[in-house]
Amino acid sequence: MGGGLGASVLARAMAERGTRILVVEREERFRDRVRGEALAPWGVAEAKRLGIHELLATRCGSELRGWNIFFGGGSAPFIARDLVETTPQRAGWLTFYHPAMQELLLEAAAAAGAEVRRGARVVEVRPGQPPRVQVETDGRSEEVEARLVVGADGRGSMVRRAGRFTVAQDPDHLLFAGVLFENLPAPSDAVYHAINPGLGRVALLFPQRGERVRAYVGCHKDTLERRLQGAASLGRFIEESVRSGVPAEFYTRAREAGPLATFDGAETWVEHPYRDGVALVGDAAATSDPTWGQGMSLTLRDVRVLRDALLATDDWNAAGHAYAAEHDGYFARVHRTDSWFTDIFMDVGAAADARRDRALPLLAQDPSRICDVPHSGPEAPCDEAARRRFYGED
Ligand SMILES: Cc1cc2nc3c(=O)[nH]c(=O)nc-3n(C[C@H](O)[C@H](O)[C@H](O)COP(=O)(O)OP(=O)(O)OC[C@H]3O[C@@H](n4cnc5c(N)ncnc54)[C@H](O)[C@@H]3O)c2cc1C
Q1: 18: CA distance to ligand 1 center in Å?
Q2: Which one of 85, 147, 233, 277 counts the least CB within 10 Å of its CB?
């Protein structure tokens, strides 16, 4: 249910192995919803294992092999990293325009044999053996029975709600805003990551094809009076980017090429995202804080783990539980380490400043102290020893 990254990649992977698949996507045409447009190196590795990397790389993607962090408005990078040289995946971040990626992967699912219905909405889900869904198309309602229903319908998932999954949520903390620009002269081969920790501000520039740049601003919610929302907020978005440390001259000729929107950073998740014939994947299973760019990599991990569980046995109830148990493990590691990055780079107040006074000089001296989960994935060290190294408490 849904036709985003999670649904289309799972549909393709299962259809090409002969499973009968129905994809239900409410949008007739994808538009810019201000979503993820940069896939971390560990997500690139997942894309390779799922057989979609070449398609993305040749048809809509660009690789950014550098990751440059600028601190407090400085013009020399605090850290300049070549990710192809230094990640276990030997890959940079792959950027693309999200609607183009969605169209491409949904076409690929259809080409592999999945039945794809656009302009159709899931309006009801009844878990059970077998599970059933109610689908509305052009005012007509139809009940569909399936061996497995997969909710891949994003952060506001109706499958999650109708399936009566319990949702856990972190306290509100960060806000994250994004907009697409043209004529913004950021270096085209690296991510520009400006952090102003004292102000609880971060700005990220991800250059993509067509000489466009996806720009984000993240901030602590206590430091922003009003959300950055709509064209009228564009001037404030640029001001906040500059306060984060992006050079003002980058915006002299920049022109917006899509909507501006702000999202809550608080992570939401379902423990054990499978019950009674219904599995959740991607943002429906766990929405991670976009500030740290892990959502699409997690989505592809979900798809790969669920695919492999389903292909390993005819007992799809057992496969659903096996997927959910594994999901809990890797999501917990990403979730935990996201909160470390928030503590060190985004939190505000005296305690946060004291934490940074201890940690930042050590991180500058030895960048290997920075937890590498956001680039290398949940298998990178993230135990208590890794936390102490990151916080400078060892
Ligand atoms: C501002 C922002 C920045 C981000 N930046 C990054 C980043 O840099 N890197 C990264 O990895 N991730 C990032 N993310 C997260 C990333 O966008 C998501 O993790 C990813 O899109 C999740 O994919 P999905 O397939 O689970 O859900 P979605 O992409 O949301 O797809 C869900 C689909 O389901 C459809 N749908 C919903 N309800 C129904 C219904 N009832 N019936 C039929 N169809 C339905 C929707 O139309 C949609 O096409 C960011 C997110 C935000 C908000």
Answers
A1: 27
A2: 85
